[in-house]
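User: Carbohydrate ABC transporter permease, Paenibacillus baimaensis:
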Amino acid sequence: MSFIKRNEIKKTIYEAVLIIAAAIYLIPFYIMFTQSLKSPQETMMNPLGLPHVFQFDNFKKVWELMHFEVAFMNTFVLTLVSVVGIALISGMCSFTIAKRKAKGYQYLYYVFVCGLLIPFYMTLSPLIKLMKDLNLVDSLMGLSLAYIGRGVPFAVFLYVGFIRAMPHEIMESAVIDGCSPSTLYWRIVFPMVKNVTSTLIILNTLWVWNDFLFPLLTLQSASTKTIPLAQYMFYGMYSSQWNLAFASYLLSIVPLVIVYFFMQRSIIQGISTGGVKS
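Assistant: Predicted structure for Carbohydrate ABC transporter permease:
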């Protein structure tokens, strides 16, 4: 058997394994999609088969019962403020830490790194207590501040490494040409770390959008519920109606699927480039 034929056989085997793995991975999505389009009786009698009659009214019922538009706007605002805040604060802070020669800035960097070493659940109780003392409980802006504080250490860790690797000659030339520190950052440095910024935006968006525990502990009124929290409460009320429960699951993931569909190239490039410093 020739070398080329052996490679073709190996390639075929790898592709078959990947196809089987993808099919297994998609089974839960198939069940969720088909169950969301069935009647309550059919979900019990025919759980794995295709629906005989597509019940698209399930999504309309879920939308009205969940008040999905309110939960969506709350989640969108919370995610937008948190992600933008993390990117802006950590980027400017990292630029100062990376390019200042004083030892105090290096110690400040170590303080941020220590934020990565402390487990989140160890800080959860004192953080909730602090938010209560500052009247930030049951507030989307208060919760966004907590997300920013939690996300900045990792962002600083990434930004500092990339900014330190930049050629000093570029920044020195900009300073000689009369660039102020703010102009130097926004015109020179920030465009050069766009891949890191893309990575952080993607990872933090997935984190904040899908987070359940923190909103559960801090958001109390119905007007501030996020999508995961509203979906959880909906399931608790309608757990016996699996068709509505699965329809609520599908509605909850649709926004992220749409974002990924339009940004998949940026997502792959940002994560692959941001994961390895060049």
